[in-house]
Amino acid sequence: MSRSRVLSGIQPTGTGKHLGNYLGAVRHWAAMQDEFECFFFVADLHALTTTPDPAEQRDRTRRTTAELLAMGVDPSRSALFCQSHVPEHAELAWVLGCLTGFGEASRMTQFKEKGGGNVGLFTYPVLQAADILMYRPQSVPVGEDQRQHLELTRDLAQRFNGRYGETFVVPEPYVQRAAARIKDLQEPAAKMSTSRGGPGTLWVVDEPKVITKKIKSAVTDTGREVRAGDDKPGITNLLTILSVVSGRPVAELEVAYEGKGYGEFKADVAEAVVALFEPVRRRYLEVMQDPAALDGILKQGAERAREVAASTMTTVRERVGLLPAT
Ligand code: TYM
Fold this sequence. Notes:
Blueprint: E1 5-10, H1 19-32, E2 37-42, H2 44-47, H3 54-70, E3 78-82, H4 88-97, H5 102-106, H6 109-113, H7 119-133, E4 139-141, H8 147-164, E5 172-174, H9 208-216, H10 233-246, H11 250-256, H12 262-288, H13 291-320
Parallel strand pairs: 1-2, 2-3, 4-5
Helix pairs in contact: 3-12, 4-7, 4-13, 7-8, 9-12, 10-12
């Protein structure tokens, strides 16, 4: 029997991937590889919505690929590819765009938060729906911020199936509550994000002393107790991080740090994150030594992805009434 499918993607970014990307998403990708048939990709077409410099765009795509490998994505078990190497994504996005209401697309919060922009940014969630539906995955491991895009994806799958016959699997978001929204260390009301950057963001490839410094200078809350609560967003975020990294429940950590100060607690959080990311950083530097090998991995991943994408698109073209080319 064939294994259930999993798919997810990540944008290539200049500064790299952060702790939120790892804890909210990529950690799960790495863990799912044995049980599921996995497709993971670098969303380079999505990144064009920010119109980066071309050399920069190429560099980011390679670096993001290297980071995924360093974080445990294994190309011998999963198809790891670059979105633009599978042109079917853009083609399916067009077809799905023709089923998406203007008002429906206008309601996507990401577009609204960015205060508008280009048409690419407006149709961004439709391309994301195409990325997903193409592979008929059962499950899509993402952080909380992607939930709305997953809802649109599900709506579009149902709409297409209703109109043209059963074609797509309606995918389930796989959002692990504990680490679904890691917060910025300096502004714990906001999510940790690439665009915010700065001293509140922990990059996966930060040097140990940088990680330690950022965690030790994380904003804390009034009071002295290490406990989670709405009145303590800074400490709650650090507790979440330590809990996920160490595998110990928050309640257990609260007991363990009873009577101890913020200083000792932060030192332990820093130690745990350094231990987690030090091997990742080393592996990243190693992988970046050999760009030809990286390109080879992406090529092999795209070949596998295209087998599936070509077959999906043959069905889609036929279902919507496009004439075959031959
Ligand atoms: P991106 O590149 O912004 O983020 C990659 C993954 O990291 C998760 N994430 C977080 N999780 C917890 N806490 C945080 N602070 C945090 N910040 C980011 C995101 O939820 C995501 O899972 N639109 C997508 C890329 C994409 C995609 C797809 C994803 C394109 N096509 C198809 C899944 C399926 C994005 O920009 O993710």
